Amino acid sequence: MADYVFSRTFDVGNCKIYDMFEDTIAGHEVEHFFNCREDQKFIGRLKFKMNLEDTTGKSGLSSKFEAGTAVTAVKNVQSGSSTNPEKRENLTDEDGMGAANISHYPLEGRAKVKYSDALTSTGVLNVCPPKKRKLQRTSEVPEMLPNLLSRLSHHKEKSLDAQISFSEKSKLLKGVKFEKASKIPHKEMDQFEQHEGLKAGIHIVEVTRRANADTSKWFKQQPWEERLQRAQDKGSLVLLENLDPSYTSSEVEGIVWHAFKEKVSAKMIQRSSFSSPHSGQAFIIFRTKDAAEVAISDLTKKCLMVGNERPVVGRKVTLREPGNPCKFVGHMVIDKIKFQKQREEQRNAVSTSHFSQPNTIEYGMAMEWLALQEKSNQWWDALNEQQAKEIGDCGRQIKNRHNQSKNFYLGNQCMLSS
Amino acid sequence: MESSAEAEYAAFEEKVRRTVYVDSLSPLVTEAVLKTALNQFGNVCSVQFIPNYTDSKNIPRAALVEMENMKQAKQIVEEMANFPFMMSGMPRPVRARAAEVEMFDERPRKPGRRIQCCWLDRTDPAFEVAKKIKHLVRKHASEASFLLKSQLAEEEKLANQQSETLKANYKKHELIEGVLTDGTANRLARRYNINFMDA
């Protein structure tokens, strides 16, 4: 259970308080910051290296700073090596993530408090409680701090001694960071190989509910439209096709989890009169652009079979621009009715929803529309029927091939046994 | 656990049967308009518009309207199929159909369903067929989008044609009105010795 409840965030960059919780803070999923559970650490670590690169690449260090790093390269090594034993312990010990790190915190914590004292005008204090909690919980803090600190430096306070101690801190932190980056890959490789092994064989995986699927409901999600738009801007949006149309969004999330080992949010596209009854579509929001691209290329090169003989197709998708009202044909207005002297109530009349009466022009025209609707129904039915036939043909073929391959394997076994 | 999931799904299916799918809606139709319109047939419980993220933006809107009971839903579908029903404009009528499970955004998972997935390798005999199916999926999608495009074109054609008809009608009315008001009709009547009131 949660020990604390957080309802607002404070953006240090924009100096604004938000009611909404972002999914990620500086590239990290929020759930890593709070109420960490045993089973989440595993995933946290997998993502770790990527995050490191992310933040180091983007962290808004001022140029003054970058210049400083070269001079202190030696120092980095020193500080890195001094923390080495602790780090190693940290990495080998599955559960003791917090323990080893805590030794750093008094130092960093103090530093931060000092800054926040100095910079109360930027409102840093507001951020402190969650950050502090985070310190005790995750190992990802060190590279968060320079980020935070460097952002602070942008704000104000050019006081010299502050800057000196500040840069020294970050040097120290950088050392830690380098050390970590070099350590992680081994672990990652192991994981990676495991996944590869899984993919290469023709293992049929039963899709179960995704691990810790419920954590996504910890925080109020942003409206789906916004997340969709953001994902498109980021390039992490993928459209999956040829799913069973009756799958639910959470089942699709499960499929993606089992196929790509990626935690995503998925949404089945609701069927309308124009969607295919054979191929269900779903939007998938991956966490990163890379993950989305890997998934698409995997789906193109290999075949992911889901359920009864359905190879899944994945592609990038462009959303239609929001906001533009759509053009709708078929409703007409007569703008200047002057040939009839209108009575008061006639002028005030609003067009209400109604069945048209058979003695009007409206009725005659409506009949033309009904005829068109009927035609449209027929041509869609024809298309769907034809497509169903084509799919059926292929389905039979694939079943035959499956039997072939089964016989093939069985034959091999017979030969081996004889 | 299992039985509660089944109960949930059964409740959902019942809701589907009570729901009407309405499309060919003008962008002016709001939830309130839909509610008032369909309250004539019974009690509207909820209205949900189906968002359209990908398709060409000229597709008319569609909505799911949940009614109080199955009978009301059925009645709406039947009557709207036989009589043109106008909503926020004319003469294009709206279209109603029975709702389907897949039209709903939030739906519970089907209890007891097991989904399996696997990666096919290039060496697998089924791989080629799977590739073929993938092509088929693409082909079908483009066929559908082509059909949709021609349907939209067809609709536009009808709309233009009707608007021409309406303009012609309007012009005719205007002409008659003009002739009557500026006294031309009277003068002509005198000229030809016809009693104007008889004509």
TrEMBL record, chain A:
The keyword RNA-binding applies. Transmembrane segments: none annotated. Gene3D superfamilies: 3.30.70.330. Residues 78-98 are annotated as: Disordered. The keyword RNA-binding applies. GO terms for molecular function: RNA binding. Keywords: RNA-binding. This is RRM domain-containing protein. It comes from Ilex paraguariensis (yerba mate).
UniProtKB/TrEMBL annotation, chain B:
Signal peptide: none annotated. InterPro entries: Epigenetic_reg_gene_expr, Nucleotide-bd_a/b_plait_sf, RBD_domain_sf, RRM_dom. PANTHER family: RNA-BINDING (RRM/RBD/RNP MOTIFS) FAMILY PROTEIN, RNA-BINDING (RRM_RBD_RNP MOTIFS) FAMILY PROTEIN. It holds the Pfam family RRM_1. This is RRM domain-containing protein. It comes from Ilex paraguariensis (yerba mate). Keywords: RNA-binding. Residues 18-101 form the RRM domain. One of its GO terms (molecular function) is RNA binding. SUPFAM superfamilies: RNA-binding domain, RBD (SSF54928).
